[in-house]
Amino acid sequence: MRTLMHDYYTQPMYHVYLEAIAMYILWLIAMFVLRDKARRIISVIGLILSIVLILLFTVSGRKSGSYDISLIPFISFENAKTNTELYRSMFMNLLLFMPLGLCMPFALPKKVKIKGLLTIGAGMVLSIAIEAIQFFFSLGRCETDDVIMNTTGVIIGTSVYLFFFLVQTIKRKRRTK
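Structure (tokenized):
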């Protein structure tokens, strides 16, 4: 598993961009094609898989190191000017949490009205929890920028739900006219 993660992380960035775009398009098509119950089942499975992958990539298999913390927001952008590999790291943090944003709003029950906000909040809490685990168990560097990028990934993922919701609302209004 570690080799698979390493291979994905080190592939050319344009592959990663194209795969992310393809994932978005396929997910959106699936959500429009599937009926409510099937959409929810697929989304719950996707949500569980995304959480498992997030935990595998962020805390599983890491060796204990030092207690390293960076609480200065956006410092990674400044540091990336001299170390361009940080751009890849930031994008991968963003990409890692996008599936959570894609799946969770569709997985939540219909009666939940603030699915987007709930998803973004849950993604941020999960990211903060992971950073705290990394710090307290010295499993990696605890960074504010990771929380920012992870939460941004959830927001981008949630935007697909918001687009879907907007299109469905427009369709319903046209039918009622």
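The helical segments are 2-10, 13-33, 36-58, 75-79, 85-107, 115-136, 144-176. The beta strands are 69-70, 142-143.
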